[in-house]
Design brief:
This protein is an alpha/beta fold. It folds into three domains: about 50 residues, Multidrug-efflux Transporter Regulator, Chain: A, Domain 2 (Orthogonal Bundle), CATH 1.10.1660.10; about 50 residues; about 200 residues, 3-Layer(aba) Sandwich (Rossmann fold), CATH 3.40.50.300. About 50% of the residues lie in helices and about 10% in strands. It is built from 13 helices and ten strands. The strands form three sheets. Strands 6-7-8-5-9-10 form a six-stranded mixed beta sheet, with helices on both faces. Strands 1-2 form a two-stranded antiparallel sheet.
Length: about 350
Amino acid sequence: MNATAPSLNPSDTARRLGVSTKALRVYEDRGLLRPQRSAAGWRVYSPDEIARGRSIVELRALGLSLNEVARVLDGDAAVLERALAAHEASLAANVETLSATVLRVRRLRQDLARNAMSVASALAQARRSGNEIDVAFDLPWPWGGERFELQDLRKLTHIVGPVGSGKTRLARCFADAIPGAVFIGLDRLDAGHAAALSRLDDDPPLKARVLSNVTALEDAGASCSGALLALLTAIEDDGPTVHVVDMLEEGLDAATQDALIGFLRRRAPSARPLLFLTRSTAILDLDAVGEQEAIILCPANHSPPFVVRPVRGAEGFESLAHCLASPDVRARLARRAI
């Protein structure tokens, strides 16, 4: 590292790393970054800290929790090996999907050459990978019956909105509109730890999957609880084509939430899509959202929900960030807007 390179302030460091200044503060709070202080007492990041920050960002992009990132930076190669193995499997699955798409496009060209297919039909099929789930429905109250459409359901879809925005109703609409989907409500928490274990005892294959996942999550910093067992038992059920979960983080501490979202991101590409409500910055870290994730915002004024890109300046980004802020920050912003 060039010792003569200048240190940077938080804004410039965040811009160089492609994250927010809030992310830098989180990394500092978790002991991952240790910025120095200028003569005036301001945080500054040395070239070595910026290089370490780049490693953190790249590890997060692999789906590692903050606890796992810390272990990798401390030299735990086993954690990195698991993440790389999952990434390799994902890449291999993408290669298979692309190969199948190439063959389908080739057949479409042949059909088009024989006038066996219209141009419009050929174009529509050529754009599809063959595994998409599209969903469309008319929005119920509190909306005005507008048509909502979402093409190519991602592996993870975050549904966010303020209290009273209709996000739970929207989630139920997804569960009703997608064939074979199931809505997993907060009543999953009522049964408790003992009931979850009892259900698992009745289904040995399900129990094996859930306990294996619990072990992986605990290794990533999670704490086993009745809430976690109930959630994993529900989403590991083989029956549904898609799981729609009310408040994914309910009953889970911050470390468990962080481990959970990393685990969900690293699931096999063939894993069934998961839609869920959240207001947790541990679950929806805007600096860690991957290509196989989507964010749907339900605005406070009951205008139709829409997909928000996790990029500052994108439509809906500020409203999204406000929803994810802590209660005291939201109150302060509300007072400032008056």
